[in-house]
Amino acid sequence: xxxxxxxEKFIGEVKFAVIIILIFAAYLTYGTxxxxxxxxxxxxxxxxxSIPFMLLQFLMFLSIFTxxxxxxxxxxxxxxxxxxxxxxxxxxxxxxxxxxxxxDSSITLEPNTPAQYVVxxxxxxxFKTPLIEETIPLPAVYKATDINQTIGNIKIQTYLPYAxxxxxxxxxxxxxxxxxxxxxxxxxxxxxxxxxxxxxxxxFESSKSLGPLNIHYLPVGFAKCFKANxxxxxxxxxxxxxxxxxxxxxxxxxxxxxxxxxxxxxxQEEIFVPKLSPLPVYIDQDQKLKxxxxxxxxxxxxxxxxxxxxxxxxxxxxxxxxxxDELWMTKELNQxxxxxxxxFQVKLLTHHDKKYPILKPIPVTPIQDxxxxxxxxxxxIKVSVQTKxxxxxxxxxRGTPLxxxxxxxxxxxxxxxxxxxxxxxxxxxxxxxxxxxGTNKPASYESFVTVFDGGSSKHHIFMNNPLKYEGxxxxxxxxxxxxxxxxxxxxxxxxxxxxxxxxxxxxxxLVLGSFYHFVLRRKIISLRKASL
Amino acid sequence: xxxxxxxFISIVLSNIGFSSSTCDQNIETIPVQxxxxxxxxxxxxxxxxxxxxxxKKPFGFSKAKALCLLSNEFYDPKDLxxxxxxxxxKARKLLEIDQNKTSMNFSDLEGYSxxxxxxxxxxxxxxxxxxxxxxxxxxxNYVNAIKKGKLFSxxxxxxxxxxxxxxxxxxxNSLFQVSxxxxxxxxxxxxxxxxxxYHPFGIAIIFILLSIFSLSIFKKNALxxxxxxxxxxxxxxxxxxxxxxxxxxxxxxxxxxVMFSGFGAALIAYVLxxxxxxxxxxxxxxxxxxxxxxxxxxxxxxxxxxxxNLEPVLRDNFWLSxxxxxxxxxxxxxxxxxxxANIYIVKTSLGKGVDKPKHQVKVIYTCVQIxxxxxxxxxxxxxxxxxxSWGRFWGWxxxxxxxxxxxxxxxxxxxxxxxxxxxxxxxxxxxAAAFLSVIMAWFGVNYIxxxxxxxxxxxxxxxxxxxxxxxxxxxxxxxHFFPKNRKV
Lengths: 532, 488
Description:
Chain A contains seven helices and 35 strands.
């Protein structure tokens, strides 16, 4: 008992308060620097929502609470002190209630599309197997963390909240036609390493646009026919991975304006309608134009790529249309090749027939620059599945759901933000952005929305004018532009804060109390002294 | 021969039509629309040339006339050449100019556009060199925009704003002059013209210095107090004009917060001196006021006096006014305590007879009390505003976190004062040091941490300022803790 009393006395003492306040300030300072280097979300996960910080806040609460108890029973001269410290306690309680029971999330409204899910910053893993469908919420950690949870034949292993991806070559069991290469494309100003792959398991595509330049990665066999002649059209046999040779083309236009191409060599004859399909066509019994779906032949109309910069890469060789010479140039990449656009040069770095490239996430500490992560942008989770052939391990990355086929059955994995379904739908009818006169700078954002809740009601949400609906509050927070349609969409912050009134009451008491304590009390005392 | 000579003269004469007559008249008070605001041509020309050139008198003319001539390039290209500001040493190296040269002619600089772009692409992180290159290329763009007639629009008789690219030379000549129909625009732009023309803050400095001098020399305070009143009135007028012109509270960027806190400190100090009969308050308050005014006038890289449109989120006058005013006034009160503490430290270490610390502590404590109450109220109002507009009371944004840290540090000192830990002798240097947390919250977050929701206030060149304040404060504290005549 003596000991407990001693502790109680120590906690209630002003010296303890000073120590706690200083530690708190030091911790916050650390937090702001963490935020500056690693971004707001990382700082939140690492500092402000961490257990040591919660503990520190609790100790602060305890210190204020005990200190207030020690100064009981009520003394008139301490009225300001009581009010002020009660206000602080309410602020702490309110914040805790908000943290524990509140919702802080957002909703993305595409134009004229009903939305029903609000998403929070935390992640979850959703997966579907032939037997189970499960959603696993992931903790708000700041570094790679083992989850070690097994559900059915699925084992959730490690969660990487911040990761970068490194290129890794995996052995392929497929034939050499599914090859992959890495090139360096550079000029005086920039240099970029580009990896392309024809393998379906690779994390790389077979085409890419770099500003005005379009790059196409094609099977090795294509190089031969690119080189063979200057014809406008080529016919590719995808089965044998070669071009048909010695073809003569005959072009015709139907009365309806459709271009028809008749391709003929000594062995066969096919008809193509370039506008319809790269596959050959035929006329069926009903006199209708049909595509030969099973044909291995593909029409490749090279003349479409003459006007703009298009670069064709075929493993170890390269081809492009030289506009000054009006010629298709095809060259071996055993040396650096100069391209006719903006001083660009291309160099082959690696080429693999029997390997395919994947991007493997590795955990990193994120780095931010002007509010955007420049390192550690990716999120991933390592999952393993028990199959007949043994354990299969892979990473699920945020933004790219996986649909692996395991033991002949389709599975589905997705790493995404935690989502909550609203009991009603919201549609963005119109997004309005006012600009400053004569400029493109936004002056205000406004969302006109309709809430469908059995009936429907229209609302106008703009900065400092949120929508309050069934306990939730919707604030205008951001906007985006659909790159295809050019239409604007809106992002609203959605918030439920049961601790709000406690925080407001606490704030009021705190301000009134400190005003009384520091300003009025002194005046009253000095007035009393003067009257004596 | 004579014929050719005549032809030559007539060409020359036809070409100078615009420049000499149009640019020589009174063009300073013509209202123009630029950057989404209506402002007088004089102010636009000052802002533009301040950004692009180190020349005080571009082409040897006033800035307004120079901008007029440069705009004429749109109608009649004469290839006027202007020296463009090059501030970074590395940029000078890239552009192959002398390390001590502060500028490069536009015509030469334009030839380096590709090199500048290439250098910018090569730098991955956002360092000062990259930012300087970005600035140089935006200076080039600026000059090109002027030459293409895209910098500003003019108000025509049908009450629409028209850019130079939509005006013929004749139309331009008729619109680019002071005329009656511009009265429809009100008179705010005229006030802006006067505000920037007559340098009220420079005049205020003179009166403040006179006041401090009188207060320190004469026994009676009347003269010093009168000078202080004049300085305060000048500042009130200047601030009022700025509020009238911008239509909002005068606390929306670094320049304005420095302006308002300096004025606020002088005002608080004046009131304290009236009530407490202590002239030391006023001396300290005015001392801080002068520091702020000097910063406003000379630290142009850090504090930009231009009136600009606000970020959408800040366009709420009620909360902006209450929250930021509270915080800035608290900084003002704490600044008085900071100056007082430093005066005390310097005086004692110099061995000058000062009265006992107990009295000094009382004086300083008064300011700290005011500052802490205002800071607590300001931080909480910030929470309420954030809750009201973003839906969260507290988000650990660096600006709000640092204002909380400052508050906590002052709270720790005040609590420590109740215990035996902080006696009167230690209280004063601690208060001097504590103000560094305010400097950090006020400037450091923007100039050093530079992240988070408050990023709309960020600008450059402040890190050196913060470093110097820290160093200066540390040296003064060293005076206190290691006095020369200390007996070992």
